[in-house]
Write a structure and sequence with these properties.
The structure is a homodimer. The first copy, chain A, has about 260 residues and is an alpha+beta fold. Chain A is built from 7 helices and 12 strands. In chain A, a hairpin with a 2-residue loop joins strand 5 and strand 6. Chains A, B: Its EC number is 6.3.2.31.
Chain lengths: ~260, ~260
């Protein structure tokens, strides 16, 4: 057999605003033999955002005209629509129940605003700066344990023409999120055509398999055996321009107004 | 700690048309302790397609007018474009180097036709019927080992607005590719909003981490510890309608002609 790795889920208490995620990870993993150098720690973005206090009480939200229009068009609570508008750089349209947001060059349903796993009457937004949060957690884990790890902030997202959600990396530190394979050769010595591997998304998907989305309270996963993807020169998770994206580039060629609907 | 699983890469010789993948898997895993009941076996689609003889010699291909137009518009070899046209139900457009194909309800670059990891002067198409191939391999593995496994045929694909390719399931047998979470409760007892988990895509992504895309010759991965996703009622990998897809639904609302360009 060739290379192998292991993935463990880490159960925690239900997180609340103000919780120190790094300290919780250190405590919960210590009982199971502790962290190792080279471990990759994947953290669910909703747990991180909650601990960081990125939650909004819906009854405090006053919906705008635009939000009320989206409620009519897409059957989405106008207060939720208002939060989504505030969290988005642009709204590209929607389907019933969801607005399609553009946020920092990434396309995502409802700007990542989540009603699941939030206290009654609240919604959780995406973490403000997932790369920065990953760096802070990395440093705190290193301080507490002396171990060099990789930190990945992950989300569960729908993909074009795929049924069901799978894992994506939305922030990282100490880890190569996208591996550049350009210049490498294939089995027959040709240059490779697939030039980039989304290592961070693959790791996030592996982590999601032990996390689940329901009442399992497993917001953290440890991936052991993939230390080859650790890097001292980690630049966080890069996004791509819509024009470079096969799906959106094609949609834009067909209709240049697609991304400028306001 | 909560649940955990392991992923092993399985190295093989370079596969050629006529190879028996199930027999090769049985042989290579036997040397490493053998397969277990509940193991999930992920197989790279390019290796499967090659073994099944789904390879085409480019010098035998005579490009049509349409293919010559795509060569001009998208800088793609007209013979490759011709193979892509034949493998597609429809071409939705493209970006330099790639045509965007619709095939059996799925949207994918160059209809999955791959020049990498094919013998010189050949291309590999997608396996003809990945669900059926998965079933055949399942039955042969069971015959050879007596073990009940899950079989996953996987590909590495680009996703909307993500940098880099990650793993997706394109065929399966004995395994639940998409888990329906509707009716389950979240941490606070609410109904879940994310209703479906792409277990097959998550498993494919985990497998891809031990396979790589270059000259590593590791076309198979064993995932051990995820037997909860095995199922006697496996219906293969379901696709979704473009109108149900957040990305394509929005693009179609903006421009209904997007999927009917011929």
């Amino acid at each position: 057999m060739a290379i192998s790795f292991q993935v463990f889920g880490i159960k925690t208490k239900i997180l609340v605003p103000g919780d120190d995620i790094a300290a919780i990870i250190e405590k919960e993993t210590k009982q199971a033999g502790g962290l190792f150098d080279g471990d990759i720690i994947a953290i669910a973005e909703s747990a991180l955002a909650t601990a960081e206090g990125s939650i909004i009480k819906l009854s405090d939200v006053c919906p705008s005209e635009e939000a009320l229009e989206y409620e009519k068009a897409y059957k989405i609570d106008a207060r939720l629509a208002e939060v989504v508008i505030n969290e988005s750089d642009n709204i590209a349209g929607g389907i019933p129940g969801f607005l399609l947001s553009l946020k920092k060059g990434t396309l995502l349903p409802n700007a990542g605003v989540d009603e699941s796993n939030a206290p009654e009457g609240y919604v959780v937004t995406l973490p403000k700066d997932p790369d920065k949060s990953a760096e802070n957690i990395y440093r705190k884990i290193y301080e507490l344990t002396g171990k060099k790890t990789g930190i990945l902030i992950i989300d569960s997202r729908t993909h074009a023409m795929r049924l069901g959600c799978s894992g994506v990396a939305i922030g990282c530190f100490g880890i190569t999120a996208v591996s550049d394979e350009r210049g490498k050769k294939d089995l027959f010595g040709h240059q490779l055509e697939v030039t980039r591997l989304a290592i961070g998304d693959n790791l996030a998907s592996a982590a999601e398999l032990v996390m689940g989305e329901s009442d399992e309270c497993t917001p953290v996963a440890i991936i052991r055996g993939m230390s080859k993807h650790l890097s001292e020169n980690s630049f966080g998770v890069e996004s791509i321009e819509p024009s470079e994206c096969l799906f959106m580039g094609t949609a834009m060629n067909a209709n240049p107004a697609f991304f400028n609907r306001d």
